[in-house]
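The authors assume throughout that readers already know how a fold can be written as discrete tokens. The format is easy to grasp once an entry is in front of the reader. For illustration, here is how one protein appears when written out as sequence plus structure tokens:
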Amino acid sequence: MRVAFAVLGAFGEECGLLLRASRALGEMLASAPASLLGSPFAAHLDPRDRDRIVVELARLTSGAERSWEGEGRLRAADGGVVRVRLEAGVLPGAGGAAATIAVRLVELAAAFGDAAADRAEPGARSAGARPARACE
């Protein structure tokens, strides 16, 4: 079981972008952690979970909630899928407004679901599509 960490921007141009990525997150996404920096976090979510997770993260950036927990799937650069438990919370900046969002991702056991159902779907990571951001 791997445990990964990420820090996301919570406002302005950085909103929803990966500002920090742990080595474990890089392993889960089959990418070097440095190459993930500045990319939209939503781009690394499986399309089947993306909208739901972005809505929950938006609740954090809006101030409606201070933390959120849920399950989802990451879509790795090699097309693989990693099931994770996500735990996200606001890290306040000046004046208590959301500055960044810390995300802890815990890999779930492979036996959690049917591996065949998690195979990459054609076009699941469309290079031309801009994923939704938690601040929009």
